[in-house]
Amino acid sequence: CNDPFNLPPAADLAALRTATLAATDGAPQSQAEVAFAIIALQAESLAPVAGQADALRNGARLASFANRLSRLSPALIEQASDAATDGVNWGALTNLQTADALPAAIRGEAFVPLAQVLLALNDLNAARSAKMSLQILPMIDNARDAAEMTAALHALGPDLIVMSEILGKDSLLRSTHNLSKTAWLAVAGLAGIWISLAILAVGWLHRRA
Q1: Nearest to residue 34, comparing CAs of 114, 144, 126?
Q2: For residues 61, 62, 68 and 72, what is the CA-based torsion angle, rounded to 10 degrees?
């Protein structure tokens, strides 16, 4: 992925128009696209802290890119879809001509919780690369998941993918994100040993049967 998130505002507006037309099917994934495009365009007003607009915009573009590749969790798609349902005047949005008219077509506060998640997704993406983010995103349901995955990614780097496959998301996120890489890998090694022993035990039982 060659930085698909460095886009001009006109691209966000075009994405919003396309998403708005597609969202007439009522599918949560289509409505989520509308929410991501709105946040990208309204990042200046929705960013909780001054100076975070670019980070929020990139997080929204990352989510949109992942959504089109079916790399978002159902929970995150549902949150984005709910934001669009609660915060959009669909008649006004369908007839939108310019980005300047967008604030009149939305209820901004409906997008604030989703904006927090998208900021956390940008932090995740900044920790490594878009390619690795796309591998991790299906495991992220909320801002807390994203923050904990980011901490684990800083500690483990690419080994996080293997760790998630061995431990599973819930066990991985229950572990403290302050562990050193050596400690993380030790936990993964122990889990791998138990899995190997279980496989050997199953094979032994089959031979005994």
Answers
A1: 114
A2: -130
30 backbone dihedrals φ, ψ, rounded to 5°: -70, -40
168 and 156 Cβ atoms separated by less than 8 Å: no
Instruction: Judge residue 128's burial from the number of C-beta atoms within 10 Å of its C-beta, 0-12 exposed, 13-18 middle, 19 or more buried.
Output: middle
CB count, 10 Å around CB of 48?
A: 10
Which residue reads 């050193």 in tokens?
180
Reading the block at residue 207, the tokens are 């031979």
* DSSP-derived 3-state class of residue 149: helix
Task: Give the separation between CA 157 and CA 141, rounded to whole angstroms.
Answer: 21
**Cα atoms in the Cβ-side hemisphere of radius 13 Å centred on 85:** 12
Reading the chain (209 residues) residue by residue, the pLDDT tens digits are: 445 567 788 889 999 999 999 998 889 999 999 999 999 999 999 998 878 999 999 999 999 999 999 999 999 999 999 999 999 999 999 999 899 999 999 999 999 999 999 999 999 998 888 888 899 999 999 999 999 888 888 877 888 888 788 878 887 777 644 455 555 556 555 555 655 666 676 666 667 66
CB neighbours (10 Å) of residue 193? 10
